[in-house]
Known about the structure:
The protein is an alpha/beta fold. The chain is built from nine helices and twelve strands. The protein is globular, with a radius of gyration of 19 Å.
Amino acid sequence: MKALITGAGGQLGRALIASTPAGVDAIAVDRASLDVSDGAAVAALVTAQRPQLILNSAAYTAVDRAESEVAQAMAINGEAVGHLADAARAVGARLVHVSTDFVFDGMASTPYPVNAAYAPLSVYGRSKMEGEIAARRAPDALIVRTAWVYAAQGHNFVRTMLRLMRERDEVKVVCDQIGTPSHAGGIARALWELASAGVSGTLHYTDSGVASWYDFAVAIQEEALAIGLLDRAVPVHPIPSSAFPTPARRPSFSVLDKEATWAALGWRAPHWRVNLRSMLKDLRDHG
């Protein structure tokens, strides 16, 4: 099988490449080799390569900057997905598109089902909502929403916390935003398995468990100290979101219901702390 992976330079794109199953010929493109917002370029590449599967992990992820770069966010997260969907339909390929918890408003108190109503709070959230709508133009498309993605490489919360804990005498982290961390490697494995099984529709995938950003930060320090990745502990202070204002509003509760995903996969994701421990060991051993 031939698969096209977009967003190859990102955390998830790299994880998809690293976990490509045997027998799959993966063509990976990053921003420099394919502008996904260029419909003609997308059509030309897909027509030339004729993949059976398109895995779209390309995204505009600068949540706060999106508030002032609306057109760019909409072009990459919304319109580009339409280009990929149209190209997939033209060659008979399946589209697997990665979305986000930010399509919801965070006002729930129980995990969001896959059919929960859209209610994005930010430009980023609206752009990802538009991407989901566009993805459904492809026959049998699969949309997988995830959240709080991190990996040993790239820009993410774990690496930021490690840097701040080395540089500062204390750190302050918001405690009233609740969700679930997700290791990119686990997401990639799930995407490949769901794609190979021919699953379509909308599903949710994160690691198991629940945390606030404060809980996540405390765990990062504890696990990093235990394996020698940090050589000292600093106080981690919980603060409300109101004490750390940002241009974009974030959902305060974005735990996703994943029961349908576990049924489709035949396995449940490890608890987020298990994957965090594994990722930190990888960071220690390989940088």
